[in-house]
Amino acid sequence: MSNTKILVPLGLTNSLHHRLIITVRLLSTAGNRKNERIRQTRLESTKQEEEKDFRVFQIKGLNPRNKREQRKNDAPKMQPRYMNMKPDDDWTNVWPTASTFKWSAIPFPVRQGYTDNLSENENVTPGRYANTELLKIPNFLHLSPGHIKKHCQVLKDFCTPWPAGLETDELCDQHFPLTVKTRDYCFSSPSVADSRSRLVTVKLKLSDLRLDEHGEDKIKRLLGDKYDPETGEITLNTDRCPLKKQNYDYAMYLLTALYYEAKKVEPWELEKDEADIDKYSWERSQSKRNILKLVQQNEKEESLRERSEDDILSRDEIKSYASSVIELHNEGENYTTINNYKQSVLQLLNVKSQLT
After folding, report:
1. For residue 13, which phi and psi values (nearest 5 degrees)?
2. What is the pTM of this model?
3. Among 220, 238, 271, where does a domain finish?
4. 65 and 134 co-located in one domain
5. Residues 85, 151: one domain?
6. Looking at 24, 58, 77, which one is the last position of a domain?
7. Where is this region: Disordered (predicted)?
């Protein structure tokens, strides 16, 4: 700061002289401060213009921070939720619904991903923190046993008791022999319609139709590959109509038509011979007629000769013979079938002594 001297008249007192010197010095100091502020403002404006053209990278910790910024950054941070969780916390309240993976709410360690080499992450599978691989896959943390128990308790009010007499699958099949299967598809798209949902599958045991031998043979021929001989099950798949309800009605129509068509007996069907039948039929076989004729010829008493065919065929030895003949024709010749046929014939030849 410069000192400026001013000449005053000799008549002034010493106090006035000192006041003038102090005033001049204050004016000089104020002028210097004003010039300093102007220069500082120009420097700051120039610096801002330079920063607009080129942004300077600020290295954290290189320059000293002011107290306000330091207090702001040094504020206490909240801990992850799993750090404050207790072992007896209700998991259904922590993860109530389906949600994307949140690393801060999982109280157990989870790892996902891989490392390319030994130097990456010390060759350790990445943990849960900031792991995008865990965000990609769906999780079932909302379907724990506790969640399912709560869901069941809520849905229990809308359910009815299970009907009595349907405790086993066999009883269910006995009372409800018809099985209908349909499909529904859910996906995110502009249209919720799916052409595959119109498919209807109807399954039924052939024995549940209670057809006679003629009806079973005829419906098997009408069904073709829709009948499984190993399981004895009829399977009808319908997908001709555009709607599920239409395909269901069409399947019921097919089943009804097959049933009544199988029970119908055409005149030409009576002309079928024993060779036209897939399986050997004892009722139409020549062996049945021969055994009846043989037994009736060997009867001595007229009262025994007048017995009906049902009485003769109900004998144990004739039933055994009929069973062995059917087994021999349907299963083919092997040691078991031939031996059974032999024993039944030997027993049948002694039928005279058993009748008397």
Report:
1. -80, 170
2. 0.51
3. 271
4. no
5. yes
6. 77
7. 62-85
